[in-house]
Amino acid sequence: MSRRDTLKRELLRFIAEESSADFDRLALEVARYQRDTLPAYGALVHACDKELNHWRDAPFVPTEIFREVDLSPATSEASAVFLTSGTTGVGRRGLRRVPDLELYHAGCRTPFMEGVLTGHDKPIPWLSLIPSSEALRDSSLSHMVSYLGDELASELVYGANEAGLLPTQIQHAMTAWHQASRPYLILTTSFALVRLFDTLESLPQAPQGSVMMLTGGFKGKSRTLSEDELLTQIHERLGIPPSRVIGEYGMTELSSQAYGTPFQSPPWLNMRVIDPITLQDMPPGEQGLVGFFDLLNLDNVS
Q: If we measure between CA atoms, which residue out of 96, 72, 94 comes closest to residue 299?
């Protein structure tokens, strides 16, 4: 069995057991594997002249680097190629080639069920204002929604495609579920939701028990709302209280997601707030950069 296959098997077992006990050991093995197999990252580690005695010794990679360098194995074929949204105003879009989606799929199901679908023992309908993976093949968010929807939704209606919102489909689904008193899940970005509110003056109230997964912000957009303003509009326009609006944090550069307020990450995703100069952990309550170590980024940079 190859070094990669052994690591992958251990990571799949780690996901299944949902225990953080082995994180330090696995993270160090993953960091050393990426040093040895990802040419660009190996060059960075050697340039920093650091021994990897602990996973925290592994140098961070700024997200901007994904626009400039392919941080993937040199010889592998990709099962998927995900691109960043390009909303930061820079011409090039960040890229992540994913040779193998098995770890991504294994790690996204349980956090979503526990973070978003908690309280729903049976499948409910989904309305996605995020286009399908067929419409946006290079979107990691679309891939996640389509993959999870196929497994977990009783019905999945896409209220958007690559060109934008589909108001007729949205209105029809919301009205049908409202009349049947069927609670449902809305999956949306903040910007798509504001577009919906601007496009449709009258929206049926979501039945009690409905829930929303809300992700993304307004960077690069001309119209913005504060978090409180958006939550107020969601409650007034759709009848979904703030406690049923679940935040999602994900990035094209990551394989894992965090949910809730504050964000709760699964055992395989370490989230830190760090000093932008020293890269050391900040005290609780202080602002800084967000640093990640994502065990599931085995074939990219963790």
A: 72
- Token reading at 109: 């199901």
How many C-beta atoms lie closer than 10 Å to residue 232's C-beta?
A: 13
Asked whether the beta carbons of 290 and 273 are under 8 A apart, the reply is: yes
Tracing tokens 């992540």 back to the chain, one arrives at 96
Model pLDDT, residue 78: 83
Peptide bond into 262 cis (omega under 30): yes
Rounded to an integer, what distance in angstroms lies between the CA atom of residue 169 and that of residue 70? Answer: 38
For residues 185 and 152, the answer to whether their CB atoms sit within 8 Å is no
- Is the distance from CB of 214 to CB of 248 less than 8 angstroms? yes
Three-class SS of 26-37 = HHHHHHHHHHHH
Pairing status of strand 269-274 against strand 211-215: unpaired
Alpha helix locations (H) across the chain?
3-17, 23-37, 39-48, 102-115, 140-152, 167-179, 190-199, 227-238
| Successive 10-residue mean pLDDT values, the chain, 302 residues | 94 89 95 94 92 95 86 78 71 82 96 94 96 96 98 98 96 98 97 95 96 79 77 97 96 95 94 94 94 95 96
The predicted structure's pLDDT at residue 65 = 87
SS3 assignment, position 4: helix
